[in-house]
Amino acid sequence: MPDALFVYGSLRSEFDNLHARRLREHAELVGRSTVPGSIFRIGKYPGYRREPEGIVNGELWRLRDPEATLAALDDYEGPEYSRILVNGAWIYLYTGAVDADARIQSGDFLVP
Question: DSSP secondary-structure letter at 30?
């Protein structure tokens, strides 16, 4: 099982929630990274889609125990997010409907 995870939203190191802290405890930050695709505002969270073409900014983490950590994060992300592989790293894909006007043009959840 791949041990790399790309995060683009509330799991990033800038956040201090239960799940972001859990990730920091069970993984090592490799550094800033990008993946192809786009992110959209879904309420107060972002959602990743492969299309339209763009660049999404985030962080790459190396998981110490991928199975256990990903199982916990799958529960956190919920049923509207599916974990997929992009460029060899896991990422959470938003599977619900998105509004084109809700696209985060910067590709960075922390940049308006």
Answer: E
